[in-house]
Amino acid sequence: SSMTAHTYESLPAAAVRIGVSVKTLRRRIAEGVLPVNRYGRILTLDPGDVDALFHRCPRPASLSRPRSLTW
CB count, 10 Å around CB of 50? Predict the structure, then answer.
């Protein structure tokens, strides 16, 4: 692993960026599926970890709103 500097983001910033609630991020952290960095009371996330968790199974736009249910 390289010693490059990482950029971290706050929970609210990550939530806005990926379109989920802060509560959702906190739930994933509590479940142990989202690594978090703690600096006292301040929690920060690695954007790469956030992306890996929430973009692993992208939903095609065609599946988000079924058009066949028009009756």
Answer: 22
Tell me the pairing of strands 9-10 and 42-45: antiparallel
**H or E segment at 29?**
helix 22-31
Provide the token pair at 24: 């959702």
User: Tell me: the pLDDT tens digits for 45-61?
Assistant: 999 999 999 875 555 54
* Predicted pLDDT at 25: 96
Q: List beta partners, residue 9.
A: 45
With a cut of 90, say whether residue 13 has pLDDT above it.
yes
Phi, psi of 45 (to 5 degrees): -120, 150
Strand partners, 45: 9
Contacts by 51-54, CB closer than 8 A, 24 or more apart: 51/18, 53/28, 54/18, 54/20
Tell how strand 37-39 and strand 42-45 pair up.
Answer: antiparallel
